[in-house]
Amino acid sequence: MSRTQMDGRDDLKTLQAVWNQLPQEFKTELQQRLLRAIDDRCKRQINSGNYDATVALGELYEDFVGTIADDDRFSDAVPRKVGEDHASHLVFQRLVDELEGRNTILYVYDRQRVRSRVAEVTRYFALLRQRFVGEEYDFTPSLTKMVKMDIQSREKPKWGEDGKRINSIVRDIYQEVKISEPAAEFQEAFDSTGDWQDAIETSLTLVRELCHELGMKGLAKYQGRAFERLYLQSVTDDNDGTARVVTASTGGGKTEAFLFPLLTYALTASQANLNGARALLAYPRTDLCDNQFERVVHYLYTIGELIEDDESSPFNQFPLSVNLQHSSSGKVEIDCPECGGRMSAEEDFECSENPDHVIDYVSTGNRAQADIFITTPDTLHRRLMDPYGQNQFWKRGYPPKFVVLDEVHVYTDQYGMHVANLMRRLKATMRAVAEEQDPVLVASSATISNAEDFTKRIFDAPRAEQIKPYSKKDIEEMDESRSEGLEPELEEIGWEYLVFVKSTEPRTVQIPQGDDVYKPRSEWEEFDETNVTNLSTMIQVAFAFYHTILKERPEDDDTKDKILGFVDSIDSVKRLGDYIHDAEGAGGNDDAGLYSLRKPDAFLPETEQTNPDCPKDLFRGSAADHETAVCEPLPPNPELNPCPVYEAGECWWTLQDDFLESMDVYLHKSGRTETPDGSRVNDDEWDMMVTTSALEVGFDHPSIIGTFQYRAPMNIPGFVQRKGRGGRDPGDQPVSVVVLGTFPEDSFYFHHEELLSNPSDEYLKISLDEENEFVRTQHVVSAIFDYVNVRHQDVSDEIYRRLEIPELIRILEDDRDEIERWLDEAFQSADPDFLEGVLDDLTDYVGLTEMALAPHDQLEEAGGFEKFWEALRIESGTKSKQIEREKEQLQKLLTQFEILQGVNAAGGTDE
Fold first, then answer.
1. Most buried in the list 136, 509, 533, 725, measured by CB within 10 Å?
2. For the purposes of burial, counting CB atoms within 10 Å of the CB of 456, is it exposed (0-12), middle (13-18) or buried (19 or more)?
3. Per DSSP, what are the bridge partners of residue 325?
4. Distance (Å, rounded) from C-alpha 841 to C-alpha 848?
5. Which has more pLDDT, 589 or 248?
6. Contact 560, 552 (CB under 8 A)
7. What's the CA gap between 601 and 628, in Å, rounded?
8. Straight-line distance from the first to the last Cα atom of the chain, in angstroms, rounded to the nearest whole number
9. What 3-state class would DSSP assign to 342?
């Protein structure tokens, strides 16, 4: 055996001995440090314009030695007879090899330099060309002007053993209850304080068991604070009207922070036999409503199972119910909590796999009563005025206790004005129905910096409190009395990548055909013209992104292989989705499979070779002609084995193995998911989903590893939410790609990319102009109908749905003083003269509908002096009857109008 072989075997034994002694978490930590160091170096080179970024292993090793020099975990693992220098060399090489084996880094050139996988893919973006089947890439137009890369740390709240145990939370709440008085509704419902406390203990115990069943032995500390404050505010008389806003990173558990205390209150109210709703949860998107509805259903199912298994439970029947309301709630589908089959609202939530699996504590639509209502602000706006809301809320003994506005950062501009005024109307109505019951007002968001001010204003609350996980900076800024004993509640869980691609200018490019490819441009006679647009860049980036990015496949975890793309118009969803679908190879046209033009054919088996430009002969070496050509097992070295195709960016080196198949593209728009041909789908077979802001919040698919944004986003908080859709698991390292066009806003964000990758608090402030006179006027009018719906329940239906105008006129005249007090209560900051003016205008307008359509004798032949409101009134009955009635009334109006025109033409009247 040679000396070299002996040294190699000794090194292997030494490495094995040291490696086995290193703690696994320390090895993982070292790998992460090493990868981050490679990424940071590549990032600096890319941002300086060098897209062939590489990192010398020698430089990395120097940093590595410095990292472990004083770490006892390393020195304790090295045997005395083995020097730490030698051991560090061996461990360093092992770490590099493992990273390369996982495809997170690539050896380049002479195996003495490396490049991160994301840097390699970014290189493809930087060199993109517009390709068509059958054309040489030399003449195809470039699509990318510049590329930048950023890396940001990801943090999440500490929970489990590092958080606060459920038992401790329950104990602290109950200790506080013992020295508190019941809330007003419980004082009336329970015979004694002891009964009230027993109901609280039972409810807390059941929710504690729910957490244990869900695998949550401990919550994050901020979740524990939210649980304690919100639940105590709901069941005790210690409710000073403070609104709470829960803020944490995307995926940081905000929902459980308010949902667990809400469910606990609902269970307590159930034991008190309170007649009324328990909670209103409003979400800004119907998709988010559906997502949270399914979450609540599964929580309720688990609660029901726990009750069924407990023979001593005081609940003799299922205690809670949930209702979903929005424009398309009747078509919602959820997973069966028993077997994973599908349940549809259209089938009364009967499982598609097992008809015996039916859940009867859920409902959709505006007729069913429930304990928990999940809806949108727009639907709630109608429920305040119409008979459905009257039956669900105001005819019952108590109005909802919890009012939740999730993803509150969405409520900005006019939408924010709308929601702020809606909250004032809602609170006024709740006080009118049950003055003694104070609501618990809760907001939540991952992307808002002025949380307390905004929450106070949108709820019109006297004060607001932010509940969030404390960072090191938060603790340092606290008073010493508050910060004593506190520790940071956030931990770093890795990082995320952001790549910014700047498109070239839109233009028309000539591509020579036939023999003209060998001639100077001035002599071209035969050529095609192609248009280059911003959308062209996005299409090609979509190919490169999906087919070359690392798709992790952990053995015990979900596959990470989906890309979610965002655009800011429904039209762009369709166009972009169709183009990607067609060019991917699924559209059946001549340009199918464009991604395959970049396959590294000399690396792949002969049967997979589709790259017409791959210079396979350069890499055959001593192989016989019949054997498959094989590239070196690393990207070509321009000095040793140059490959012009790779250097031009037309060989996507990482496009191998499971990346070789066309992706399935789905579109999501207007609340529905469909394929590019328009077929509606509910399966999970998509690889890339193109959508709008509809999936910006609450779409938490575990397999999404990357997102893209086409063109400048509408706002910074929204973009932060969008990139947060990818990589929901702690171990993920998601990639977000932003393709920016040539418009001024695109250029601004490219040159100030930090506003998107790491925005300061200044750019996460949400503005709210709730005093806007035009929006306020609309809501003052609506508030008058709120009053009618609550104070005149016997006739409100006739007024609201059938235009019973005489009755409305009577109420406006007889109840004038009470209506003014109602408006003052709802809009306390508004000028009383303004409120009276709106009421006067509405009264005058309603009075005008008493007038005849046209005051002229000849109209008697067409039906007489019918009043405006009579012509527009819809008779009660079936929809078909209503439609026929509308047709008749419209025809009648047309006839009268034609008669009137004839009279005016003859000079009969100027009316």
1. 725
2. buried
3. 375
4. 11
5. 248
6. yes
7. 9
8. 116
9. strand
Report the alpha-carbon distance of residue 293 to residue 856 in Å, rounded. Answer: 57
CA–CA distance, 385 with 789 (Å, rounded to integer):
6
User: For 288-315, what is each residue's pLDDT tens digit?
Assistant: 999 999 999 999 999 999 999 888 888 8
Mean pLDDT is lowest, of 71-75, 85-89, 521-525, for 521-525
Beta strands in 518-654 (DSSP E): 527-532, 562-566
Interacting residues of 319 by C-beta distance below 8 A, sequence separation 6+ = 266, 267, 270, 271, 303, 307
Tokens of 409: 């950062």
Domain at 497-599+652-760: CATH code = 3.40.50.300
Does position 372 have pLDDT exceeding 60, yes or no? yes
The pair phi, psi for residue 840, each rounded to 5°, is -60, -45
Pair 73, 23: CB distance under 8 Å: yes
**Both tokens assigned to 727:** 């990589």
Which residues are registered as beta bridge partners of 673? Answer: 668
Whose structure tokens read 């009421």? 839
> Contact at 8 Å (CB) between 344 and 333?
yes
Cα 900 to Cα 872, 906, 908, distances in angstroms: 19, 10, 9
Per-domain residue ranges of the chain? 3-115, 241-490, 497-599+652-760, 773-905
The secondary structure of 500-531 as a DSSP string is EEEEPPPEEEEEE-GGGGGS-GGG--SEEEEE
pLDDT digits (tens, 9 = 90+) for 3-25: 444 455 667 887 788 888 899 99
Residue percentage of the chain with pLDDT more than 70: 89
Contact 782, 425 (CB under 8 A): yes
Q: Measuring CA to CA, which residue among 404, 338, 396 is closest to residue 375?
A: 404
Under CATH, which number does the domain 241-490 receive? Answer: 3.40.50.300
User: Would the CATH topology of 241-490 be identical to that of 497-599+652-760?
Assistant: yes
Round to whole Å and give the CA distance between 50 and 41: 11
